[in-house]
Amino acid sequence: MFLVEEVELLAELYVQNIDQYHSKFKTGSKLSKSTQDKLAQEWAISLSELGFAPRTAGQVKQKILDMKKKARKYLSDERREMTKTGGGKCPKKPAPNWLVALCSAMEKDGTGHGISGAAVARDPLVQIQPRARREPEARVQPHSQPEQISQSEAGSLPEPTNENSDDSRSAPPNGESRRGNSSASSAVRMGRSVPRLRTVIRSRRSEVEELRIRMLQKECELVTFRLEAEKKRLNAEQAREDYYNLKIRRMSDDVT
Length: 256
Prior knowledge:
By secondary structure, this protein is mainly α. Helices cover about 70% and strands about 0% of the residues. The chain has helices at about 5-15, 20, 30-50, 55-85, 95-110, 120, 150-155, 165-170, 175-255. α4 crosses α5. The longest helix has about 80 residues, at about 175-255. The chain is elongated. Residues about 110-135, about 140-145 and about 165-170 have low confidence and may be disordered.
């Protein structure tokens, strides 16, 4: 966690070297990265010399990102409060000096992109006019006399339409049109998703068939192994039987 003195010093160094830190007038990603690393290392040494805590270049880079996020949020909240767009409130406490300096530097540098009207909102000389509200139309009183209209004004007025005409009856309500659009879009989505489902089903079936073939191969290997074992057992029994027969013959020869 950075202390206030460290944040103020880091903001001052960043504002003074913002163009060099982002390498706006140089080309090459490696060159810009090396410049950022060099400046971050120098600033880490300057912060460590304050005597609060030893700082590294990685901590300095991360703190700069956090400070820029805070500045963007401050500018966005200030714009929303000035233009009455809603969605946020201006901070109650006054912003610290380092945040104001960082916001102005980001506006000049253009790194506060995505906040349209932030520079105008921060200018105290520019007054943002709120949007003019539409005045309600004057209702005609039932007992009031109609005003006289000139021929030029009468020519510019639109022709009256009958609310009970066939066109108004034939026009579908908004709800039905929306439902029709939603059903059409859902049908289009279903039409697009059906071929995908078919391809997925085919791939699954092929995987199942491959698995069945592998299982059959394993069963065949197991059967062959059992047959070989049975063959070896039969050969062993035959050899034992031959041995006993030979032994019996020798014993009979000795007796005779």
